[in-house]
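Entry 14: structure prediction run for NADPH2:quinone reductase. Input pasted below.
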Amino acid sequence: MHAWLCENPVGVDALVWKELPTPTPGPGEVRIRIEAASLNFPDLLIVQNKYQIKPPLPFVPGAEYAGIVEAVGEGVTQLRVGQRVACLSGTGGFATHTVAKAALCLPLPAEFPAVDAAAFIMTYATSHHALIDRGQLRAGETVLVLGAAGGVGTAAIQIAKVAGARVIAAASSDEKCALCQRLGADATVNYSRENLRDALKSLTDGQGPNVIYDPVGGDLAEPAFRSIAWRGRYLVIGFAAGPIPALPMNLPLLKGASLVGVFWGEFARREPQANAAMLMELARWYGEGKIKPVIDQTLPMRELKAAYARMASRAVMGKLVLVN
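Run finished. Output tokens:
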């Protein structure tokens, strides 16, 4: 097998494409021949030693992937050789083969393509957990999605529309805003040239959004929170802009608003049954055509560094997927 190996987490340039022994699955594990793997923002952080999870060195990055089960370890009864699966194991995806815990694998129906499957779990699970569970989104409410043209943003637009919400999508270019409209956004804000607070005041008749979905952080956080509706819920997803904002704590008080942390990975670990039910619902929605990953590009696995460069340039709309 071949894999991108991180031996020193100082950045993307230190990754090396290496030939490694093909692994044998242990108890409770399966070996997967990887067909496709998607690039997520944590994949960038983890090779820079900036992510909250720091795997022992050396490791193969790539949190999310899809492929075919080649071998099963002792005690694995829920999966079989030849079965197609999607997996989010945190590492191991940027390779031709990997070993993963069988419990982390989602069996795929035949009509679920590998490229879509590799771009599915992290973004849709994060957005569903954020909007439906943590945000308690109700039909008829208004959702502001920041960074709306990215992987989690495009998933959030689709899930909010399934829930019956009105969606305001905020992105950094007219091209990205146009993508959001094609996905069903009711209104868009190009925050590179529009004042976010003024636009939200106009689009909500001065009431503000009920739920704010924020995977961006940085300078957008405070003006977005200042625009929130009474009893609004501000969902903290991540900090793609880099800086972690420091919000004045009088803002939640004045608006009777909630600042809500969203950590889907920890939810999945602590509440595995609820997470499994959520994933099954998402898979059903995909089968019904209600949600579908937006694929920015597919690139050969050997071009991982080019994919990282495109992500770092903030040019990606939806998800980048590497294929073997």
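Notes: The chain has eleven helices and 15 strands. Will compare against the previous run tomorrow.
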